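INPUT
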Amino acid sequence: MGTRVEVVQPEASGIESLEAYLERQRSKINQCLDEVFQEPRNPVTKAACYSLFSASKRIRPIFALEVCRAICGDENKAMPVAQALEMLHTYSLVHDDLPAMDNDDLRRGKPTNHKVYGEARAILAGDGLLTKAFEVLAGSGSAPDLVRIRWIKVLAIAAGMDGMVLGQDMDIGVEEPASLELLESLHRKKTGALLSASVVMGAIAAEAPRPTVEALREFAMDMGLAFQIQDDVLDVIGGKELGKTAKSDEKNEKLTYVSLLGLDKAGAEGKRWYQKALDVLRTLSFPHSHRLEELTRFVIERKF
Amino acid sequence: MGTRVEVVQPEASGIESLEAYLERQRSKINQCLDEVFQEPRNPVTKAACYSLFSASKRIRPIFALEVCRAICGDENKAMPVAQALEMLHTYSLVHDDLPAMDNDDLRRGKPTNHKVYGEARAILAGDGLLTKAFEVLAGSGSAPDLVRIRWIKVLAIAAGMDGMVLGQDMDIGVEEPASLELLESLHRKKTGALLSASVVMGAIAAEAPRPTVEALREFAMDMGLAFQIQDDVLDVIGGKELGKTAKSDEKNEKLTYVSLLGLDKAGAEGKRWYQKALDVLRTLSFPHSHRLEELTRFVIERKF
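OUTPUT
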């Protein structure tokens, strides 16, 4: 189910390549999502699964697992987080693509949910995925109660009316004159909040001390901006591999880093945030942060 | 903020009338909701508050508080539940009213959310309220962690793709030939699941033993059907007091208890479920279930 990725050379013979690692993690995450949605029993769950199981980078769950592993050595503690994050991210895509929102026809290389199932069912499938994310976190295996509670708080705040929902609302309502500050604030909500939650929830799964969690929150926010800038760049230069309608931002007259700064300066801005994120990460000196650094670089160097 | 209610005579001098009790509870619930949304800071939160603070029966939170009080004597333990339930119920109304769904212009006596704020913001306001419900349950005051986890599980399952969301999806997609069995199954999901969650979550707040919780779940499901049947009846006979477009079901060619059975038989069916609910309640012999019985009667005798 995983999307095709650029071949990245392994750094040394015998070490798994980033590509192989990403494929392995995607496959693991897909398997765990499959376990939640075995044999979808009704049409609205089928609609939800259509979007959930379409080709996806699974970048948020991969970060959650990797952060957890970097801290405590066992990524499986963050598996409920991985599942919930992908459900929540997918709901946001399904709702964002609706005619009343971004009105997109193509997502993850396939017709958008409402194009296949109609608007009513797409709205409900999104609602269902959002709700299921919290069910999974509350009901999840062996995590201590307090860990679950902290996960749910972090995710609800990140996804809610002062986080991702606000970011999307700002994005729709944005008016000229636009500024870099406004755009940054918008994306700290729209993309940054959930990416940041992914990293923070991974750290909570590993029961990391609070100062570590807070430093990781900063790392993830910076990385989130780099990620969003690369998204804007790819919307302009990307082709089929992007999996959504290319130049849809331009079509919708959206304010983006590229429309505001031009391609070159947007690229430089992305690299700046990437470097900042990396600096924070290195101060934490996790024993196994090699993959985490690689993942962070992947965010800014990816081609899809 | 409370809606006008029928004057119900107090059973004895000195005992607070049901009307006064309902008004007092609504006012208490509104005050607690106010505390969550002090000074809405952004447009999407304002849109959410528009619907959340419109005149409402607050029947779900009132049940949650009353069940908790009947069991342990302290209704305040269920206050986070009351807040979350009303947020969740309001989200479902905002989304159900959307043009792609029931396309309603009037709700709780005012123009529907999308009529005032546009479709995009109405979708987001609904998403935000749903998310906030889980934030409130996870972050709530002094409840033990395990109680919060159980609340969240119960609410997510009731509201999700095998509960309320499925019920709404069934309602939109319903096709002839329709039967009483189909309609009952639909409403057990659409209305019953959340009413049942209200009662169950109130019992969990009171840390009631599991057999009590299960009996209350049955009570609430039966009451939920009585409630829905009365809704269908009021859609036909109701006037301005209903607070939504009267005869909107007929306009939308919806399958209802009235369209299936006619007014008289629908009324009788409602009374049957009411009596069944009452029977379950009486077997539980709570020391203070007088109000709970009154509330149950109110569900079937209400005029709005």
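end of record. Strands of chain B lie at 106-107, 110-111.
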